[in-house]
Amino acid sequence: MTERTMADVSHTAPHGASADRVWERGGEKPEPRTDGGDRDDD
Fold it and tell me: Where is the sequence biased in composition, kind Basic and acidic residues (predicted)?
């Protein structure tokens, strides 16, 4: 489960909106918050 989430994060992490969903699924918060508004991007 963790391995799969990690892989997904690698693909969705730089996306932003999708990253939020992947992060939520993994139960972890988005560390790379340089965008300054991942939810706003949605």
Answer: 21-42
Residue pLDDT, tens place only, 1-42: 556 565 565 555 555 555 556 555 565 565 666 666 655 555
Question: Does the residue 39 lie in any domain?
Answer: no
Dist. CA 26–CA 36, nearest whole Å: 21
Q: Can you tell me the distance from the alpha carbon of 37 to that of 8, in angstroms, rounded to the nearest whole number? A: 20
Q: What is the pTM of this model?
A: 0.14
Quote the pLDDT of residue 34.
63
Tell whether 34 is covered by a domain: no
Please tell me the distance from the alpha carbon of residue 18 to that of residue 22, in angstroms, as a whole number: 6
